[in-house]
Batch of 4 targets.
Target 1
Amino acid sequence: MRFLDRLIKMFQGGEITDLLMFKSLAYDSLARFIRSGLPELERRIELTDSYKDVFTYIEEHLSARLSGKDVCEALGHAYETMRRRFRDDNGITLNQYISGRLIQAAAMRLLLSDLTIQQIAAELGFTDEFYFSRVFKKKMEYSPREYRRINAAIKKPS
């Protein structure tokens, strides 16, 4: 609150010295924010690099049938070790990551294509559109049909 009070007082003065003080305070605050966030950002970049082969494989083979075990087998990683390491480093399991990416891909297709829900489900490897709808709704809180309707305003015109 102290920061906000100082900010309001500076704007009330309206003189050039007040504006320069405001600019200085804004730069100082931004610098502190960046410094405090950089160690975490650096760690996230390192993690992304260490899992690059995993993320690439998942993107290239994204399907409802894909599991963490499949990824590890294909890349020659020990599943239990990777499962534990991935969860510790990312806060979610490898299977949760795959599921999240699957739902993100489905959401993008719902918004940016004219494919039917059945076609999207098939494209992403779901056995049927009803199972796809249940999985999607569990994660997104809306059925695919509702999600498409609610977000129709942001769809690019054909």
Target 2
Amino acid sequence: MTPPTTRRRPPPSTAGPWPPVCPPYGGAAPWSSTLRNLGRAGESVDLLMAEREAASDELDDAVVAFLALALADTGREREGLALTLTALAPHLPEYGRSLTHYARSLTEEPAAPR
């Protein structure tokens, strides 16, 4: 099985090998979830990081959600939480600025003591 290279499944007439566990509405998020559940969280992170660099679409938040789970499984919980808060911020206008600030602070290096 080869992992999908795009979020959407190609039309049946052009579809190549496709993991049978991937539903027709997307590829990277379900495939990465399968990898994570098989104990291959690092591969899941790699797949989803590449997917985030692809063109933006309506599945961006799903990609972030699955990436956050994979990051947690690789010991990068703070990074996963920061990504999740950043994705959530636009949906909460009253708190977006605060969430964005808190998300950024999760991944910044602590200031050196004076």
Target 3
Amino acid sequence: MFKEVIKTRIQNLVVTNIIDSDESTIIIDEDIMDKADIMNGEKVTIFNISNGYNLDTFATKAVRHSAVICIAINSKNNQSINIGDNLTLLSYKYIENKLMEQYKMINIDVHAKNKITNYWK
């Protein structure tokens, strides 16, 4: 039997750019994605701490060392994410029930310029 658990929690991401797109995605500095063990195309949930909005989408790699956190979203439907908003991002995975007690998720804090300041399991 398997359970879905939070694999990674990234706190304090700041939106640096918004792109008008028919398909939503969050584009993330490759350094952050590597440390968070998030793959290109992986499902993630974004929580906008600035206004309470949340969105299930997928992750896309940005240039390494760019500090980019870009949201691609249809501008006709977007009243919920703005440049400068503070986000928390969650990724998920499935693990066997017998491994639940040993399981530890990855936690990452970033500062206002989207650089990792703290990492722990």
Target 4
Amino acid sequence: MKIFILFALPILVGVLYRANVFVRYAYNVGWGATFLIRALIGRYAPHPGQYGLNCALGLDQFANALAGGDPRETISSRSAKARAEGRRWGCIMCTFLGWVATKLTGTPTDHCALSLEPKVGSDAVVPD
């Protein structure tokens, strides 16, 4: 019996850990979807009077949740944190997002630095 417990306990802990990660991921995706749906029906308005911007923000947060991030955080903020830590994907993503923001606004900008939210992101399932 002792041998069974010695071998079964680590397996049980691993299964429970994976179940917890799945539950957290499903919870985050659910919140991200809620932000997107509320933005589409006009009930999520971090920027009052700017429907398109609110929908883009809801979509951004939903996509970040799908990628394993915190549903309250945008991809730009998550990329800025990864770039600050020296992660390659963060540098590439920030370069791309800066290029897109420059094309849309017509002025050179560091979109990730402007979008950085240092107090948000602790609920990420996949750490940066």
